[in-house]
C-alpha cells in the first residue's frame, strides 16, 4: 500500500455540496483524489454496528483507508477510579467500532498528566493501557491497533518519547505522530528538514524501520503560545508552521508510505490535497 492522504472528519465543503451522511464520505473523497479518512468519535462513540459496517464497505469499495479518532475524554494517567473506568469504556467502544468498520488504528490522546507527578502519571497510564488491551482481547478485539497521539502542550502526556514508550508495551500499540502538535509543544520546534529527520530517526531507533515506513501522521498548520497549542489553522491563513515540504522530502528520500491525515480547521480536505500535490512535486523533482 502506497502513501495515503485524507481528512480528519467531514469538512464544510462536503456538507456544502448537499451531503449529510459519513457513509457518503469514501466515494466523495475518492472523487476529490484522496484515499484516507479518519472517522471522528471525539465527542463519544455513537455509531452503531450496521452503520459502521456500511462505512467500512464503502471505504473498501472506494479504496479509502479508515482510522478512528477516539473520544477526547480519555485520561490514561488518572488516579480517579471513575475516570479510569470511563477511559476504558471510551477506548473499548472505539476499538469495537474500528472492528466493525475494518478501521486501523484507533487514535487517542493519552490525556493530562504533566507537572511534578508526571512519572507516576505515566506509570499509571501504561498500566491502564495494558488493562484495556487485555479486555480488548477478551472481547474479540485483539487484532485492533491503538495509537497514542503526540500532544500539543507540554502539560499533557504525549511527548514523542512518551508515545514511543507506550508503543514498546505491545505490538498493537503504534504511534500517531502529529507534527503540528510536536511543533506547538516545542514552541516552533520543527524549523528544518533536520528537525523532522530527528523525529523520524528517534521513532526508528525505538520501534524499527517498519514503524517509520507505515507511520500514521497528522499534519496541519498550527498556532501556539508559550504553553503550546492554541488552535489548528489552515494553509490559507499563511505564516503558520510546520512546513510540509521538509517532511515530504524525507518521505521521498526514505521511500516511506505513511498515512497523512490533515486536521486543518474546516479545510482538512483542501489542505490535504495541497499536501498531496507538494509530495507529488517533490517526488517528481527527485526522480527527474
From TrEMBL:
Residues 32-271 form the Xylose isomerase-like TIM barrel domain. InterPro entries: AP_endonuc_2 (IPR001719), Xyl_isomerase-like_sf (IPR036237), Xyl_isomerase-like_TIM-brl (IPR013022). Pfam families: AP_endonuc_2. GO terms for molecular function: DNA binding; DNA-(apurinic or apyrimidinic site) endonuclease activity; phosphoric diester hydrolase activity; zinc ion binding. One of its GO terms (biological process) is base-excision repair. SMART domains: AP2Ec. PANTHER family: APURINIC-APYRIMIDINIC ENDONUCLEASE (PTHR21445:SF0), ENDONUCLEASE IV ENDODEOXYRIBONUCLEASE IV (PTHR21445). This is Deoxyribonuclease-4.
